[in-house]
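Q: Here's a chain of 986 amino acids. Please give me its 3D structure as tokens.
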Amino acid sequence: MATRPVGVPKLSRRSRILLILGAAVLVALIVGSRLIGTYVDWLWFGSVDYRGIFTTIVLTRIVLFACGGVFLGGILALNLWLAYRKRPVFVPVSGQDDPLARYRTVITQRSKWFGIGIPVVVGAIGGLAATGDWRMVQMFLNRQTFGNQDPVFGHDLGLYVFQLPFFRWVLAWAFIAVTLSFFGALATHYVFGGVKIAGRSGQISQAARIQLAVLAGIFVLLKAVDFFFDRWDLLLSQRSNLFTGASYTDLNAVMPAKVILLCISVICALAFFAVIFLRNLQIPALATVLLVLSSLVIGALWPALLQQFSVEPNANERESTSIQRNMNATKQAFGITDDKVTVKENYGGNQDVSPEDVAQDTGTISNVRLLDPSLLSETFTQLEQQFNFYGFPDELDIDRYRNENGELQDYLVAVRGINTDGLADNQRSWINRHMVYTHGNGFVSAPADRVSNVPGEGSDTGSYPVFSMSDVSNDGQGEIPVDQPRVYYGQLNQDYAIVGAEQGEQPREYDTQNSRYTYQGDGGVAIGNWFNRAVFAANYGERNILFNQNIGSNSKIMFDRNPRQRVQKVAPWLELDGDAYPAVVDGKVKWIVDGYTTLDNYPYSKLTSFGQAASDSTSSPSQANQQINYIRNSVKATVDAYTGEVELYEFGQKDPVLEAWKGVFPGLIKPKSEISDELRQHFRYPADLFKVQRQLLARYHVDNPGDFYATRGFWEVPTDPNQEQRQGPGENQPPFYVVAQAPTQNRPTFQLTSAMTALERQNLSSWISASSSPESYGQLTVLELPTENQTPGPVQVQRQMESTPKVTEDRTLFDNPGVRAMFGNLLTLPVEGGMLYVEPIYIRPNNEDSYPQLARVLTFYGGSVGYADTLKGSLEQVFGPGAGRNAQTAENEDDQQDGGGQQGGDQGGDQSGDGQQGGDQSGDQGGDQQGGGQDPEVAQATQELRAALEQVRSAQDSGNFGEIGQALQRLEEAMSRYEQATGNGG
């Protein structure tokens, strides 16, 4: 009987062509999309004048791809070639059913395909994996010295930060290459008969034995190198739950064990190499057993016994040296050394404070913040949004400016940004989203320590922020003037925008109800040529980019318009603070972004979860949950809100990590000498850095290793007493930006503050602040409270405030179904040797279009609670008459005049119509509204609005919050009808 030929079936010519075409199309789709994305990035980096960054990153990745691919594929190819070349000439088979015969035939017929194809595929995969490590490789190539030595080996810390990760990386690739080569050679020898498993003991040819033994010997030799590096890695040991770094057991058991295992590994490797000359495989087998047993006994059992029977019974003494090293390294790595932290011990306890003392504390009392940036976004939106395609972020920002008297004043600030997601259904055309509604309009500010009028007085409906708007309608000349109020780059910008027009063409971009605008700045990527238009059409999958007739030779496309996104793209090696904030600098609206250099391999420093430490009850973006043990705010970045220009400035003390990156990207970071004085005035101490530092100071303020081991005197970040009102992922109380004057400061300072409570207790233990003043920037102040006289913490104070008779008498404020009370940020402020708590209360009617408004102010000091319409009245309830003389809650507080004219500030238009969509916004022009006089519908709505206002005034005079809530709800409904009437025919 004839037998079937051994081999693979032949494909027809047509099948081969179809397979080749299919593979070509697949490769083209994959490669084409990557090429388009790369070209788009190349254009973007060119538009911000940082193309050198792009080329450096791309070239580094290409070199790593080539090196990784050649290294991995080359070693595998060499071993496959050696195994194939040294295959037995004659391979006896067990018959026609030999399962390996077919594979031998296939490989022999296509030896080049297998000998070259497999290493190429493996090399390509390895090369792609290697490209992701470009940061680590560049850090090694541009390594710096720290000037400090580790306490165990005496090496400069740069060895562990820059060099050890690279050495580990090379070693890992060597392990992978040797392992793949071993199994590749083993498979080849097995297929071609060099290795047989038939019989009782099997057979192995001399060539196979030598090649496999040499590869195994190299693997064990690499393990010896691994043991050598393990000694250095012990400086980052996590054996102790209390601290990071080499413990007593690591130093006295694990480290000697690593040296012993290193020597045994070298001996074991020599035993494998001896197979070249000896046919006996028992020697390397015995050596392997010795290595495994030594690893178990010396490397694992002996350290465990030492830890269990020697260290743990005497841990406070055994670990004291390691704890001290950890304390020193952690303070240095996180910037909380003694030269940066001023500690005032035994602060507080002063309960005998006169009203005059409080009144004279003008540095703090006259600057108490009443506006909560995490609650008032909706208030800004309702009163200052103007149109539905504008918006404000969910959380506003705090910054400071000088008022007309030259005094430092903290402000709530926000940019009225473009928000195309807010467009109505009839406005959502592609032209409107990308060519008409292209930019925001205006910089909005409000003093953070006051509202428009005293709650319940005047003709105003409530107590609102005292707004000032610098926008197109007033040519940017609000209280904080700007030269260019149009905002093309901001936090709400998600869509790309196409701007620019031919000479003489009518402007298309919406600017005001009666005007259009054409972008005049340098931002954006030119798409005037057909090639770029085709590229972006393919990139976004949008044919309109290619066929829209209004896109001409002067057109530009703006994308990646979020400030944090732009900075991250320019400097991908930076960790960015979660909050980018706007500031007016030299007449321009600039976004300021704080950049951090971080490490996770600083010897002996405490490994900390960045994401967990930076998480609190606010809705600010949280950090990635990565482990760090070194952080520096080394870079301050700015993004121009009109042009999108990105600038990075060196900041703070010399940072070796930043110096390394300056070597990678020369010219990227501008020296600190180029920071203008006005820009420096708006630098804030970054919140995420402060959150990490306060968490570490909770432990590392302790100086004695014994106290540290016993966790004696530890603090913790307090829980936010009003976290249920927030939208953040965490429970911690956020830090607060305030203008205040601490006992160690000689003038009011814009600073970031936080209360701290005792470990697993609610009483206040300390108060921490970080100065943002240019003269003392970064100086941390810690006020330690005495332990014998316990001061209530935030949660305790909140509960006492809510239960005091002055508040419980007003139960309708909390129980009325028509209105909801909202507690603002609970500030903790040092005043006259004690701690003053201040908390605003906002009310909000329970309807869809309502927004918070200030209703009352709570204060607490020394066990006494104040509860009044104003801060002045609340302070005088606590301290006595005259205490609030320098505390002004409202613009009209002194003369009791109506505040109705204050709520809008410089708005340049009627508030009642600001929330509308702006009429017909479809088409190229969009945004036009019809003019005309009042019609009967508007007159009726106006009459209802006036009646609702009268009801609100009557309710406010009665002081009954239930009536106030119902009146406010009626007012909201009347305002909604009025807005609808004016939008339809007004």
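Q: Can you summarize the key feature?
A: The radius of gyration is 35 Å.
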